[in-house]
Specification:
homotetramer, 110 residues, mainly alpha, Methane Monooxygenase Hydroxylase, Chain G, domain 1, 4 helices, DNA binding (chains A, B, C, D), Metal_Tscrpt_repr_sf (chains A, B, C, D), metal ion binding (chains A, B, C, D)
């Protein structure tokens, strides 16, 4: 969980009433619902003893769907929280970019 | 879906009654159930307007869990289907390894 | 190559006389020199018919070194060009972030 | 470095006089030479203060080239050493596949 400081960009944005991704909230919920369905489909495949490679193909499709969600969230975050921190001052900008880089590093390494 | 030919390794293993991963079937089901729960947890975070970076952290954890499932399935597949194809003859070995390499390539690029 | 527009952040920074990474220019050159050495070491291994898995281990080390350079360059870019574009206005911010997201997407998928 | 045991597949192949990749030795040397050239090109870009995003694009291209080398080496390794270990017996097969899975895991995570 982000500590109070890392959440401050959001307080700064409270005037707009939301984080970066909220404009697409319904879209993200729909995509995560589909991903949940993929996780259930994989369980069915394992129960029905599907061919290993076919299961791997579905896991790759699910990983790609998750990756697309990550990149979307990151883009929304940069367009809102990072931009607003940059305008707030050097310290706010440094903190937000350090935090975003940690998330990007996790994404790149996973 | 694998065509009949790619499924043949499995027929060859019918004597053992299963694909490579079946010895761990319950384990894979449990792990996929947890991953399904992670997908639901992400929906809750989006609904509750959690901080973007916290959502990204959870997506990375879920991607890592999926990746571990993939590597497990691949290892089981190699230890059973690939080994049994190698013993069957050069043609069977070539086909199984080409198929496994396609799955590995998708894994590496996703 | 970036077109004139994408290079404009840099013109905007000409007063500082450099891009984001230039403060670390010597460090990046040193790291890329080491990576060049790793590429030569790999050729030696192939010539001397080293064991395949040992070569793969060295390729992974080299890929990790390259990835670290990418993440460093991206961080410097965000701290300089993206922050300065955000302060310039919405249009400049949108363009820089779209461009950075393309680079991040390539990084994540490679 | 592989210990003596992990190199044994190669002794088993000494009749053919080579590891899996040796049939393509010249091809791998040529590709690694190109990759070495890419590392030098990147140094030139940093020296000439090229635009950060253009450097990142070239690093991605170089990473992709390295990844293709890895997948090629792995495929050759599976087609030769893993197949020959599978035919040698269960113990040899287990050891070679465990070793290959470690290399694949490093590839997937890098």
């Amino acid at each position: 969980m982000a500590d109070e400081t890392s959440g401050e960009c959001c307080h700064g944005e409270q005037e707009h009433g939301h984080h970066g991704y909220i404009g697409n909230q319904a879209g993200y919920l729909r995509r995560l619902k589909l991903i949940e369905g993929q996780a259930r489909g994989l369980q069915r495949m394992v129960e029905e003893e599907a061919y290993c490679i076919d299961i791997l193909t579905q896991v790759s499709a699910m990983t790609k769907a998750l990756q697309a969600v990550s990149l979307g969230l990151l883009s929304d975050h940069m367009n809102h929280c990072v931009v607003s921190a940059a305008r707030e001052g050097d310290e706010a900008a440094d903190a937000k970019i350090a935090e975003a880089m940690q998330a990007i590093t996790r994404l790149v390494k996973s």
